[in-house]
Known about the structure:
Largest sheet: none
Helix content: 25-40%
Number of strands: 0
Order of helices and strands: HHH
Mean pLDDT: 79
Structural class: mainly alpha
Distance between the termini: 34 Å
Shape: extended
Amino acid sequence: MEFDEVIKQQRSRRSFRPDPVDREVLDRIFRASQKAPSAGFSQGTGFLVLEGDDASYFWATAFPDRPLDEE
């Protein structure tokens, strides 16, 4: 698939699955991000992976009026 096709298919996500992302998938995403273009490679990327109670706390704090999806 060509890059412009990937961009055209990009959609914003409003809901998320409750199951965790495999560590191998996260590692692939992190490795790919190191090759993302930036102005003179001067812009870094940062990731924050929340698991367990930390993830629950984040969602409850970030969206206090939104009910959590049933698992």
